[in-house]
Amino acid sequence: MNEKEVEILEILEENARVPMEVLADMVDLSVEKVEKIIKSLEEKDIILSYSSVINWDKTAGKDGVAAMIDVKVTPKREVGFDEIAERIYRFPEVKAVYLMSGAFDLSVQIEGKTMKEVAFFVSNKLSTLDSVLSTTTHFLLKKYKHDGVIFEPEQKDKRIVVSP
Amino acid sequence: MKQVQQQYLSKTASKLKPSGIRKFFDLASQMDNVISLGVGEPDFVTPWNVCEAGYASLESGYTAYTANAGLLELREEISSYLSEQFSLSYDAESQIILTVGASQAIDLAFRSIIDPGDEVIIVEPGFVAYAPAVTLAGGTPVSLETKAEDEFKLTRETLEKAITKRTKAILLCFPSNPTGATMSEEELQSVTDVIEKHDLLVLSDEIYAELTYDQTHYSIARLDGMKDRTILISGFSKAFAMTGWRLGYVTGPEEIIAAMLKIHQYTMMCAPTIAQHGALEALRNGRDDLEKMKKSYRQRRNYLVKAFNHIGLSCHMPGGAFYAFPSIQSTGMTSDEFAEKLLEEERVAVVPGHVFGAGGEGYIRCSYATSIESLQEAVKRIGAFVERHKAE
Prior knowledge:
The complex is a heterodimer of chains A (164) and B (392).
Chain A: H1 3-14, H2 20-27, H3 31-43, E1 65-73, H4 82-89, E2 94-99, E3 106-112, H5 115-126, E4 132-139, E5 145-146, E6 149-150
Antiparallel strand pairs in A: 1-3, 1-4, 2-3, 5-6
Helix pairs in contact in A: 2-3
Chain B: H1 2-8, H2 11-15, H3 21-29, E1 35-36, H4 48-59, H5 72-86, E2 96-99, H6 101-113, E3 119-124, H7 130-136, E4 140-145, H8 156-162, E5 167-172, H9 185-197, E6 201-205, E7 230-235, E8 248-251, H10 254-267, H11 273-285, H12 287-310, E9 323-324, H13 335-346, E10 348-349, E11 351-352, E12 364-367, H14 372-390
Parallel strand pairs in B: 1-10, 3-4, 3-5, 5-6, 6-7
Antiparallel strand pairs in B: 2-8, 7-8, 9-12, 11-12
C-alpha cells in the first residue's frame, strides 16, 4: 500500500461522493490513474462499500429501535470465535459484530422495527445458538456521533468573513 | 464635535490608513450566501485536547499573570520544539518571549530596533500590518516588490536595489501571506552576503513554517552568521488552529530580546495564561492533528491551483501557507474591481492583491482553508464570472 493509495482511502472515507476530477487534483494524479487505483482497491476488498450516514430520526415513518448486545460464547477448537460470529452476522437484522476484549466476547449491534422484534431476536434466535452462554441487551436511546459523524452539527463557520 | 475630536488625534494616528481589507469585510458581512475565500485563518477548530487543557487550567485556578516572558515550562518546550523541528537553538530563559499573537511580536521588534529615520525593507506583497507597524515605531517602511516570475521570492538584485544608507532591517515572511511563496536553504543562502555586507538585521516572520507542502521549512536563522542578526517570530495560530487564543512568540539575540522584554512588561505584562496552557498541550501532543490539517490543506491547494489555471486565471503553485494568489490580469480589471464585482455578482469573497502592497495589483488572494465542497462551488462561480467578463 503506497502513500497515494492511503490518501485516496482517507479522502473517500470522509466523503465518497467527491467528484473523480476533484479527487485526482487533490492527490495530484490523473483521473485515469485514480480510477485504476480505486478499482484495484475494490477488487482487493479494501474498499468494501460506499454508504451514507443517515439521521433517520429526522425522517417520518421510519421509526425503529437499535440495541447493542454483549454476548458471551464458548469458542470452538480450530475455528475459535469465527464460526459463531459468522452464524450471528448472517442474520440480516444484525448490523455489526465485533470480537471484544474484556467481560464478554462478541458485541452485536441489531436493528428492529419494535422493541418486541429485538427481544424476539435475542430470545429465539441468538440465545438458542449452541455456543451462546449469555446475552445482555442495551437499547440505544440516542445517536450523537456515528462513524466519526456528529448527528446534529453546528454548521456555522465561526470565523469572520474576511480577515488579513 | 467631530472637528473637536479630530484635533486631539496624533499626526501618526490620523495619517494611518485603514486596511484595504476592511472594505470587503463590510461589504461581505452584509450579504447572504457568500462563499468566503477571504479568511486568513484555518477552517479547523482548535484540536480538542488543546481546548481541554485550556479548561483544565481554569479549573486548576491558573488565572493569574505568568512571568513577563511567559511560563518557563512553555518556553522550554518551545526551545526543544525549535530544535527538533527546525534545528534552531535558543535558550528558554534568555531568548524567548511569549507574545499576544505574532502581531505583538512584530510590534515589539520594531519598537526595540527603530530610531526615527531608520528604514525597514518590507518584502511585498506581504501581510498588511508590517508597514504600519514600522510607521508606528517611528521608522520608514520601504517596500521591496517581488515578482510572479520569481515565484514571489526575494532575490539578491531586488534586495540590493532596496537598500539605502538608512536601511536598518529587512522583514521576511516565508511561507508568505498572501503569495504562499517559500524559500529554500539555497535561495536564502543567496541573499545572506548582501544582508551581511550592509549589516542588516532580519525580522523573520515564520508563522506559517509548519505549513509547507513540497519541502520542509528552512529558517534563515540556521544559516552561518544569520542567527546573531535574526529576530524570529512565530506562534500557534496557523499550525495549531489557535488564532483566537492570541499566542505567539519571538526568539533572537539575547540583548534584543532583553530590550523587547522591557517594552513587553510595561505594555502587555504577559501573554494570556489560559492560552499558554493550551499551547503547552499543543506542543506536547498536537503533532498528529497538525499533520492531519496539513495534509488536508495540501489536497485543497492542489485542487484549487489547478482549477484556477483551468478557468484561465494563471496561478503559480504556492509552496506553503494556505493561500493561492492567482493573476486576474486576463480580465483587464484591477484587483479591487474584480473583487468587488465578484462579490456582487457571484457572492464569492476574495481579497484584492493591492492591499498587500507593491506587486499585489493584478492578483487576488484566495484562502483554501475552507471545505472542498465550498471550494468547488467557488471555482464554479469564479469560472462563470471570468468567462462572462472576458467576453466584454
